[in-house]
Design a protein that fits this description.
The structure is a homodimer. In chain A, about 35% of the residues lie in helices and about 20% in strands. Chain A has helices spanning about 5, 25-35, 60-70, 85-95, 110-120, 135-140, 145-150, 165-175, 200-205, 215-220, 220-230, 245-250, 300-320, and strands spanning about 15-20, 40-45, 50-55, 80, 100, 125-130, 155, 180-190, 235, 260-265, 275-285, 290-295, 325-330. In chain A, about 55% of the residues are buried. Chains A and B meet through helix 2, helix 8, strand 12 and helix 13 of A and helix 2, helix 8, strand 12 and helix 13 of B.
């Protein structure tokens, strides 16, 4: 217990001690987002080649600089450690971590479920949050619900932008209706260059006709670039397998077939190619058909819309965990809490 | 316990047994909204002059017809009872009610708090939901938090449209931002004639310059009509005292001064005079200023946007109550659950 926790009053709740798994574009954005927070501190990071933890908090600039110059936080002096088994080692080594954000690409498609299994096997108890995308990946986690519960883990799945923020907005919008006919999610993402989000872009390519997660994962950087050259850097995605559908079905709002997700990713321009929004169409108890719309501001980045909600759900899940409520929850059933 | 509960499986959770206090425009809409639900049944109703309860469920058409023809559900045969103290009598008489929706006008401004006190004094345990509007009214309930907790009551306040659905949307939208600068709620309400919502319209008038809740409450119907004649049936409301502000402040999103609520009510046309929306402006962790917008479909009525969320929050609060979580909560901190 650190000094802040000992002196904590109701006005200053104990700091939540957070780890981030994965330190590519998303993991680094998560760390930068955490830097100014008073209610959360970053104490643990793992990437593919190493890990670092420090119970008093990590220097986020140093973590990012080391990763960018040397390829792993494992090179960070004096606490970094290189390891080919970095996640398992970090879980065992890091002390007093309340929750982890899994900023990991889910390649292969069972990777995040396998990480959850490592947490269960380790005996660690706390909060896990992912920003997973595919329906089939959420189904793997659903099958682990009882195990997570028995392990004392409160796991929040699908807690990024979509699924996540937009799914929650759909769940909220549904409240005005007796019956939901359709949920339509459309996103626009603009990034200055694809190399900043190599894994995320591969996950997007995997949704395109003729591709899957195995093919996309095996593509070299040159092959990704060749593909993007053909489309002038634009990826157009339709009828994506996105877990918004199963999450809304699980809470009884709509059958998964009535949920569609599609969008456009511009990998060469940080300006969004279109506004991101979710439209919820239904029938009110009076028999009127109408549509509620939730639209994200165009200036907000994918990183802000994924990492902000992820930590908001982590904070909410910590409150559940404190009350002894464990198991698997989604963004559609819990209200995220604002992290100051 | 009814047959449905005895035979209930995980696929068919026990029916939630609901009471509605107040049976004017809002209370009747709440009853009509409940009629086709499988997960909730209406078992108790009170109005100013009487009450009725039936543990197997009330016939909603009969309740509304009796109220409209005779002025009180107390006339309903064979279970209705006339009483000048209908709420207190109903609380004592109705058996097995899981939760009540307080579809009551808050006139005077401490009326709903006084009803909460009646529940506490009665020894009843369960869920209470209101669609209260004023900041000062929520403050009265906040002061009762410990009492509600000790009484075994899970009370959800501010769970209509605004505050309620739009406040929750603002809380969700805030997740993309490091800092919130402004929350701006604008509503349009259209009703065919003001007599269908006499109490609600008086509450709106109370927000106009030169009026307050006491003045508005004391107005005769003729005086209300004379006022509406002056404005061609339109009420324009600005900088309203609305609890969205304190609710967002309580969850740490923004100080109350940065939340504004205003709108236009057309009392002579069911078409909305403007679209209802909430705009949340903030700064992302990357320093970008942007605005998320949540807009309600124009075809959705005030009744749908108030009563739908109210029962969604009642369902969510029932889950908290089942876990032994009591006290006072707002629409900004709990995700409502869809009621089938």
């Amino acid at each position: 217990m650190n000094a802040e926790q000992v002196t904590g009053s109701q006005n200053f709740p104990p700091t939540i001690r957070v780890g981030v798994l994965g330190f590519g574009g998303l993991g680094q954005a998560a760390a930068r987002l955490l830097a100014p927070k008073r209610e959360m501190i970053l104490v643990a990071v793992a990437d593919q080649k190493g890990y670092v933890s420090r119970s008093e908090g990590l220097n986020i600039k140093d973590c990012i600089a080391t990763y960018q110059s040397q390829g792993s936080v494992g090179y960070l002096e004096p606490h970094g450690t290189l390891s080919s088994n970095s996640i398992q080692k970090l879980i065992a080594a890091a002390e007093g971590v309340d929750g982890y954000f899994l900023a990991l690409p889910n390649l292969p498609n069972n990777f995040i479920a396998s990480v959850a299994q490592q947490f269960i096997a380790s005996g660690w108890r706390g909060v896990l949050v992912d920003a997973i995308k595919r329906t089939s990946a959420v189904e793997q986690l659903l099958a682990m619900k009882d195990e997570l519960c028995a392990a004392g883990i409160t796991y929040m799945t699908g807690c990024g932008a979509t699924p996540g923020l937009l799914t929650a907005a759909a769940a909220l919008a549904a409240q005005s209706y007796a019956e939901i006919h359709q949920v339509e999610i459309t996103f626009g993402v603009g990034i200055a260059n694809w190399e900043a989000y190599r894994a995320t872009i591969r996950e997007d390519i995997a949704h395109m006709p003729g591709y899957n997660t195995e093919i996309a994962r095996a593509m070299t950087d040159a092959e990704v670039e060749a593909l993007l050259d053909q489309t002038n850097g634009i990826l157009t995605l339709e009828n994506m397998e996105h877990a918004d559908d199963i999450m809304l079905e699980l809470v009884g709002i709509v059958e998964r077939d009535s949920v569609t997700v599609g969008g456009v990713v511009d990998t060469r321009n940080p300006k969004k190619p279109k506004s991101t929004n979710v439209k919820v169409t239904g029938r009110t108890f009076e028999g009127k058909i109408s549509t509620h719309t939730f639209t994200l501001g165009d200036e907000t980045s994918m990183a802000a819309n994924v990492c902000g909600p992820a930590f908001g759900y982590l904070k909410a899940a910590k409150q559940l965990h404190n009350r002894g409520i464990y198991g698997l929850f989604t963004a559609a059933e819990i209200m995220p809490q604002f992290v100051k």
